[in-house]
């Protein structure tokens, strides 16, 4: 919600200062940054923190989100860590 409010405010400032093209460019810039953050940066940071490949983290977030909805997105990384720990222990 904060990103939408910030992008809207920045677009309004750009609209009043430079016109509609500047406002569209500001919104496009915010969209690209949000996309890169959500799909690249956050999985990379999560992956380095917990020792998993970023693609696995992203896959877990998508899968848990699809299976369990909004709550699944938040539980994806901890549940993946738990599952990996159980598999590691079970293999011994």
UniProtKB/TrEMBL annotation:
Lipid metabolism keyword on record: no
GO cellular component, as recorded: membrane
Subcellular location: Membrane
Keyword Membrane (UniProt): yes
Origin: domain of life: Bacteria
Transmembrane regions listed in the UniProt entry: 58-87
InterPro entries assigned: AI-2E-like
Family: Belongs to the autoinducer-2 exporter (AI-2E) (TC 2.A.86) family.
Protein name: AI-2E family transporter
Organism: Thermus scotoductus
